[in-house]
Amino acid sequence: MLPYVKSAERWIKKHRQDPAYRAAYWQLEYLLAGAGRVDSATNLRGQSAEQRARITFARLRAADIPAQRLIAIYLGVAALIEDDWKSHNVREFRIVQAAKAVHRLASGTHRKWDAWDPRTGGTRPVELHAYPRSSGHVLRKIGAELEKAGNELARAVLPEVIAMRTKHFGPHPSHPPVSQAS
Prior knowledge:
This protein is mainly α.
């Protein structure tokens, strides 16, 4: 997926003033700004999929993940699925795969503290690393928001992103090799 995301980032760098890109960018900026408060990964159990998706966007905002990065990931995933001739080129697969990549960017809660150790009579460092489960419903909600912001842009630019990826990294492995004429 990385070559496609890198190609999408190159496209974005060259086309920052493109109206479709600007629309997607500002829609995601608005979503991140309005996501509400950040909640710990340990407090997510029992919350609705909508609430957990909203908290994911709040965690992305708190981790300073820019909207541009989210767009590049959505475009990269969409381009990969479009370019992979053996892939499931259906909406649900595309939005869930994009959501998985975005969810990983700011998913964990990490805490450190000193705890009393009765064996030594002193303190010792303790760490907690908690990661929210990326369940299907939450991923669909996250992916739907990404799609809402980036779908029009993806329709317009996927051929260019795929061409950039092919130019820099070669054709996708699902494409049959071009036979050499003698």
